[in-house]
Design a protein that fits this description.
The protein has about 280 residues and is mainly alpha-helical. It is built from 13 helices and no strands. Helix content is about 70%, strand content about 0%.
């Protein structure tokens, strides 16, 4: 999954630099069994190595996605514990903080909407730490942008529900903050999922021309993964809805002009097994 799988090597422990670099190469090539064998071996030799632990957490997350719901939740708990252990050993490990944020959400998701609401501030804390410790982490910036985007997208009813049933006030965030994070990620390393969220943020802010330009580029992007296909397909739908709205869309835009910046049902038939919530619902990766 590109959204949470493209860590840099800036934090590699010099003592095991070659071995960790080999593990990263195995990860990017999809050789997870070989990677697990290597990491378990390293963890046996150096059981308190934060670089090994957060990579184990990442691997557990990747493998856990293929399990049934209950088993997946157990694996995510183990992965979360590994990431927390890595951050406890080395609080300055940005990758560990990023994975705590990711796995905190997945843990809370299984436990219900109220648990997810309660986890929002903790997720934000670890994302802030991730970008503070590693300012060149384009993926962490994009995930933080998703956090701001989804918080800004919450309507008054959702905020009231959160206050009443979860017992916490909804966090504050704006599309402007989301846009700044997406642009920062794009400046570091352009990639398709971030460009998609950048286009959606422009649309939410009423920058229709910027959004159309971005969706146009995305609609012609090269497909290498199932997620790339989803993004390109949704970009085509946005272009059609924005450029040539049908009769019902035109009526809806006349009644509620703000709806021209919120195109419903785009993702209804285009979802994949990609981490849906971190980008479309809350953070999506």
């Amino acid at each position: 999954c590109p959204l949470v799988g493209e860590e840099g090597s800036s934090g590699i422990n010099a003592e095991y630099g070659e071995e960790l670099a080999e593990c990263d190469e195995l990860y990017h090539n999809g050789k997870y069994t070989d990677m697990e064998d290597k990491l378990v071996e390293l963890n046996t030799v150096s059981p308190h190595n934060d670089e090994v632990l957060w990579r184990l957490a990442r691997l557990k997350w990747v493998c856990g996605k293929g399990y049934q719901s209950n088993q997946r939740h157990k694996v995510f708990h183990v992965a979360h514990a590994l990431a927390c252990q890595a951050a406890e050993i080395n609080p300055d490990n940005g990758n560990a903080h990023r994975w705590i944020a990711i796995l905190t959400f997945h843990k809370a998701e299984k436990e219900g909407v109220a648990a997810t609401c309660l986890a929002l501030e903790g997720i934000k804390y670890h994302l802030d730490k991730a970008v503070e410790l590693n300012p060149e982490d384009s993926v962490a910036w994009s995930i933080l942008g998703n956090w701001y985007f989804e918080v800004a997208d919450m309507n008054r009813l959702q905020r009231r529900w959160m206050k009443t049933f979860a017992g916490v006030a909804a966090p504050e965030g704006t599309y402007k903050q989301a846009l700044a994070c997406f642009e920062k990620s794009h400046d570091i390393k352009p990639w398709i999922q971030n460009s998609y969220m950048l286009a959606k943020t422009h649309l939410r802010m009423g920058n229709k021309d910027s959004a159309l330009d971005a969706f146009e580029r995305l609609s012609k992007s090269t497909i290498t993964t199932a997620e790339d296909f989803r993004v390109r397909k949704e970009s085509h739908i946005y272009l059609q809805k924005l450029g040539k709205p049908d009769f019902f869309d035109r009526i809806r835009f006349l009644i509620t002009p703000s709806d021209k910046y919120r195109i419903p049902f785009v993702a209804r038939d285009t979802e994949t097994t990609y981490n849906r919530h971190w980008s479309e619902k809350f953070w999506k990766f």
